[in-house]
Write a structure and sequence with these properties.
Length: 521
């Protein structure tokens, strides 16, 4: 089998060691494309525009709003390729603005064009550059059985995925899990942050049927949470000091990185987290007697285009001198759980950690673990209903019942034992099953012989091979004479029998053409 990865920046042994072990063990081929990280890791910031994409930039600078909105290559819309990366940059550099939650593709485009036109044009130009880049690359590349792509959110991966749709290469999107020891490996063309297949009720129920949820397997799953080590966050020591002087109930809001892809990719729309946190905090202060602890995400200090406590600083600025609000960043999360009565998040994986501690997390952004029986879920457009629930509920509504905790354990078992792959040796067995079941079918040569271009045989005694060649030539000639008598369906059927590869390659239906890759000429 032959594997391909578009970069080595994210696909590495630190995050996905068992994949590298699987490839080494099976002596499979692995082409890991090395492209300048200067281009790959810009995350929407193309102020210093790459020289190699300057032609695209000059082209799209001439486009008006309508042309930019509809700009496409080979039927692929360029804004759709870059919108996630573009929004991640816009949200990072404008924390002071109250962005709405965007629910449609058109809303996102209109906002970006009206407020950040130059950034929009540069990102569209880069999407075009990447589309052409991968098209040229794959034209000269060997046939790959599997492509391993990280996240699927950045423009360079979106463009590659679009190119791979027209090939027989199977696309797997990889993403790390908060345990630090497990990762997603899903066959899909979609970006994976907060969009895992396990989010689907049907998928989850089918996986539940296939997963051993015995006490033994549940214990293994719980141990993975217990022994987990988030790769991006190291827990500081406890402070053991009260956060408030009063004795009121406390609600803990678990913040996320302001431009996290899980916030801008999913059914809940593209969520501006700081705007939502502001509304949430203000309404809790106005409509309840809760103290509020806002836990900002410390990864913002290291995140590209941020390098600062963007969310924490903005929340503190907006609620300066508010006695019932405490904003923390580098704080032991277990200590915060110990001092909380309720936990709220948009769609952070820390909601799972809250459930682990016995809370029934309140979610506002349709997380992948939502509606599995152990969370209270609200749509981001219905924040008033969430506030009403918080203000009027007794403490019992904020904690898991035994039945709900059992559903939580079942979910952990399904995702950790049934779906995710361990980066340690235990993950190898699942990878063997995953890739062997999906490996490409061996191509068979076409049983229909090509017409023989032999000179006319005049010998009275002919070899079997020559007789077959002459017979075939006669048959083909006869077919040509009678072709006008065939119906269109009969002609297509005849073409399919003779050359399935050409039948699919010449199809007027674009979606059928990739099937040609499964046949030899």
């Amino acid at each position: 089998m032959r594997f391909f990865s578009p970069d080595s920046l994210h696909i590495n042994t630190k995050n996905f060691k068992s994949i590298f072990d699987f490839i080494t063990e099976g002596k499979h081929e692995f082409d890991q494309h090395i492209k300048d990280a200067r281009i790959i890791a810009n995350y929407g910031n193309y102020t210093d525009f790459p020289l190699e994409a300057s032609a695209q930039l000059e082209q799209y600078k001439q486009y008006n709003k309508e042309l930019l909105y509809t700009a496409q290559i080979d039927g692929v819309n360029l804004f759709k390729l870059c919108q996630l990366e573009l929004l991640s940059y816009v949200f990072a550099i404008t924390p002071h603005k109250d962005h709405p939650t965007f629910y449609t593709f058109e809303d996102i485009f209109n906002y970006c064009h009206n407020e950040h036109k130059e950034i929009l044009i540069r990102n569209i130009a880069m999407a075009a550059y990447w589309y052409h880049y991968w098209k040229r690359f794959l034209l000269n590349a060997p046939k790959y059985d599997f492509a391993l792509i990280f996240s699927g959110s950045l423009s360079y991966t979106r463009a590659l995925i679009e190119q791979l749709k027209t090939t027989s290469t199977r696309v797997f999107i990889l993403e790390t899990f908060f345990t630090g020891n497990d990762f997603y490996c899903e066959e899909t063309f979609e970006a994976i942050p907060n969009n895992s297949q396990i989010k689907s009720e049907n998928y989850y129920n089918q996986l539940l049927k296939l997963t051993d949820t015995s006490h033994k397997e549940k214990t293994k799953a719980l141990n993975k949470i217990q022994l987990g080590c988030n790769l991006n966050v190291k827990q500081p020591p406890r402070k053991n000091a009260p956060l408030f002087k009063n004795k009121r109930r406390t609600i803990l809001i678990l913040g996320q990185v302001a431009n996290d892809f899980s916030l801008i990719n999913g059914q809940g729309g593209a969520i501006s987290s700081i705007s939502l946190y502001t509304k949430l905090i203000q309404k809790i202060l106005d409509q309840s007697d809760f103290n509020i602890v806002f836990k900002a995400h410390p990864w913002e200090l290291k995140k590209t285009n941020m390098k600062a406590n963007v969310t924490a600083d903005e929340i503190q600025r907006r609620f300066a001198n508010e006695q019932r609000l405490c904003v923390v960043s580098d704080f032991n999360i277990d200590e915060l759980f110990d001092n909380a009565d309720s936990v709220v998040t948009i769609n952070s994986q820390s909601g799972i950690e809250a459930a682990w501690q016995g809370f029934k997390p309140i979610t506002l952004g349709l997380p992948f673990y939502g509606h599995k029986g152990f969370s209270t879920d609200f749509h981001p457009s219905n924040i008033d209903a969430a506030i009403d629930f918080i203000a009027k509920s007794p403490n019992d509504n904020f904690n898991l019942t035994l039945q709900e905790y059992d559903k939580f354990e079942t979910f952990l078992t399904v995702i950790l034992q049934g779906q995710l792959i361990s980066k340690h040796p235990s993950g190898l067995a699942k990878l063997r099953t995953l890739f062997s079941a999906l490996s490409a079918v061996t191509y068979q040569s076409n049983p229909i012989k090509s017409p023989q271009r032999e000179p006319k045989i005049t010998h009275s005694t002919e070899s079997t091979q020559n007789r077959e060649a002459i017979s075939e030539e006669k048959a083909i000639s006869e077919d040509k004479r009678n072709s006008t008598e065939l119906t269109p369906f009969q002609r297509k059927l005849r073409k399919f029998k003779r050359s399935p590869k050409r039948f699919f390659a010449d199809s007027k239906h674009k979606w059928m053409r990739p099937l040609a890759h499964f046949f030899r000429a």
